[in-house]
Specification:
single chain, alpha/beta, Rossmann fold, 4 domains, 7-stranded parallel beta sheet, 28 helices, 17 strands, 46% helix, 13% strand, globular, binds adenosine-5'-diphosphate, binds zinc ion
Length: 602
């Protein structure tokens, strides 16, 4: 590792050491090599081009697909004292011209630019006259036609290499799968680039899957442990987004909706508040999220099943970019699986695409039902092995018990069979539990031999049985027939008594003792009382400072930096300078204000 890079890391960014592959990448690109960087969200991709930008002569050109976020990225750099600017359609001509002049004068270390702008003949000829340090192609998976984020302009970026063969290129993405990687290499002509592939594990994220019974209340219970934290709640439909946001707002939580049906202005305003203010909860469809680089998102909750495990990993990956403990929470029930199956079957896609989507859904359901370590399952899906169980996911912390459900399964399957395979789980449960409903009387189901034979389990336990029977292929959902349950070829083996069946017992079906003494919230590390006071004072100062400057709070200092300051209680600026995240630029700007905020609480 070159000393210059480490010196700049400490001086400019205030960080002690490189993480993971960063050092090798920085070295390689600074030395003029091309690189393809695959790193999970929060892995620290930006440093991989920002440091070479400082170490090489000329200006680094950063191609980024999201105009809305360029400004915050540039702001974060300026706060560090780095000479950065952006060029995009949100600026007026005078601003653009000033930035272009600076670029020609060599007065900028980095320029962020949207691909459309980059590819204009005017801008390209401008680049011919400016010294270029490197090209960084962020969110490189945007070249992939198969992904959600396809940007046709990305396809033309091969011209950079043709026009400036001596300028190194670094392409970065958090999308892990092999086909996308191959496509990036091919489309960006990166065959000769060195590949740097990091582990996709996110050790600071805890994964939890709960069985849905009263999802609104379950969500509220979950949120209680996260008061004052920023988070994202994903829902499948726009309607549910609106309803959930309104319900949370009514309970005093600052929750904002985000979906494609909202007016563009409202959407942008909500996103801006989420990025800039502390403690906002964004309730959103998956339209929200790409490139959200807010580092202190403390939780990502899913009220509905996502579409695939890749999607789930990407969405939950938005939590905890700052490396602090964070939570990924998913509520899941049979209804979700049925709904998604129906969406697949009724879509216009061709048979091949449907088959692919079905298998993705199965994988996801397998993840939800798994009794093993969630992290191992997730990483295994991306072709990575995790040594041993993680010890921090729900299954590791409270290993699920299993029970002999053979008899219950026989009752359930025979009830489905005797009622003609025309009904969904809710009605079957009513029959098994001997309920008196209009529907039961209407169909004469009180005279079925299975009527009332299932009073030994409560409705919630039955729901779990039906869900798992579907998940393991012993029942099938007739998507055309409004979600009616049907037997499968395998059902007979259980019905005829030849096969025993172990099912997972749902935790929390009976109130758990551990929960009544509420466990400390995993995602907010607790501070001793006096340090907590200092932390609160520092946060208040940061909030005010950010408001006055009109920038997101985290570009001033991250929570982790404020926490370290609160704990260490520096007495002099020299002490403050040794805190992680306090570089020379920030020390000069904010050092004395921080000391004042500390003095205020004594
Ligand atoms: P990515 O773009 O890969 O999602 P970022 O570049 O935004 O990740 O970095 C994630 C967080 O980690 C940022 O808050 C960044 O400041 C921090 N970070 C990156 N590298 C280091 C390092 N070497 N030491 C300490 N913090 C780091
Ligand atoms: Zn685990």
């Amino acid at each position: 590792m070159s000393d210059a890079a480490l010196a700049q890391l400490r001086h400019v960014f205030g960080y002690d050491s490189f993480r993971g592959e960063q050092a090798r990448i920085v070295d390689h690109v600074t030395g003029g090599g091309d690189a393809l960087v695959l790193m999970p969200t929060g892995g620290g991709k930006s440093l991989c081009y920002q440091l070479p930008a400082l170490l090489r002569d000329g200006t680094a050109i950063v191609i980024s697909p999201l105009i809305a976020l360029m400004q915050d990225q540039v702001e974060a750099l300026r706060q560090l004292g780095v000479r950065a600017a952006f060029l995009n359609s949100s600026q007026d001509a005078a601003e653009s011209a000033a930035t272009e002049r600076q670029l020609l004068d060599g007065a900028l270390d980095l320029v962020y630019v949207a691909p459309e702008r980059l590819l204009t003949p005017r801008f390209l000829s401008l680049l011919d006259r400016a010294p270029i340090a490197l090209f960084a192609i962020d969110e490189a998976h945007c070249v992939s036609q198969w992904g959600h984020d396809f940007r046709p302009e990305y396809r033309q970026l091969t011209m950079l290499h043709e026009r400036w063969p001596q300028v190194p290129r670094i392409a970065l993405t958090a999308t892990a799968d092999a086909p996308t990687r191959r496509e990036i290499i091919e489309r960006l002509a990166l065959e000769d680039a060195q590949q740097f592939i990091s582990s996709f594990d996110r050790p600071n994220i805890r994964y939890t899957v709960v069985q849905k019974h009263d999802s609104r209340r379950q969500l509220e219970d979950f949120l209680e442990g996260h008061a004052g934290a920023s988070g994202i709640i994903y829902c499948l439909s726009r309607r549910k987004v609106d309803a959930t946001a309104a319900a949370l707002a009514a309970r005093g939580i600052t929750a904002l909706p985000y979906h494609a049906g909202l007016d563009a202005g409202v959407r942008a305003a909500n996103q801006r508040r989420f990025l800039r203010e502390d403690g906002i909860v964004m309730v959103a469809t998956i339209a929200f999220g790409m490139g959200i680089d807010k580092p202190d998102v403390r939780f990502v909750a899913h009220m509905d099943l996502p579409k695939s495990l890749e999607g789930y990993y990407q969405e939950t990956g938005r939590a905890g970019r700052d490396g602090e403990p964070s939570e990924a929470w998913l509520a899941y029930g049979l209804g979700d699986a049925v709904l998604l199956q129906r969406m697949i079957e009724q879509s216009e896609s061709g048979e091949e695409r449907k088959r692919l989507e079905r298998s993705k859904l199965d994988t996801l359901i397998g993840y939800c039902e798994s009794t093993g370590c969630r992290r191992q399952t997730l990483l295994g899906y991306f072709g990575e092995s995790h040594p041993g169980a993680c010890g921090s996911c729900d299954n590791c912390m409270q290993p699920p018990r299993s029970w002999d459900a053979t008899v219950a399964a026989q009752k359930a399957l025979s009830c489905v069979y005797r009622s003609g395979q025309r009904f969904g789980a809710a009605h079957m449960i009513d029959v098994l539990r001997g309920a008196d409903t209009v529907k039961i009387r209407q169909h004469g189901h009180q005279s079925l031999t299975t009527y009332g034979i299932g009073t030994d389990l409560d409705a919630r336990q039955w729901r779990s049985v039906f869900r798992q029977l579907v998940a393991c292929g012993l029942l099938d959902v007739d998507v055309e027939g409004h979600g009616a349950l049907r037997l499968t070829n395998d059902s007979a083996s259980v019905l005829k008594g030849g096969r025993t069946l172990q099912l997972r017992a749902e935790p929390g079906a009976t109130p758990r003792r551990r929960d009544s003494t509420r466990r400390p919230d995993a995602s907010v590390p607790t501070l001793p009382a006096d340090a907590a006071n200092r932390f609160a004072s520092l946060r208040a100062w940061r909030g005010e400072t950010a408001r006055v400057q009109g920038v997101p709070a985290y570009v001033i200092f991250h929570d982790s930096t404020l926490r370290e300051i609160a704990l260490r209680k520096p007495r002099h600026l020299d002490d403050l300078a040794t805190v992680t995240g306090v570089g020379a630029g920030k020390l000069e700007r904010y050092g004395s204000a921080v000391m004042d905020a500390l003095a205020d609480v004594g």
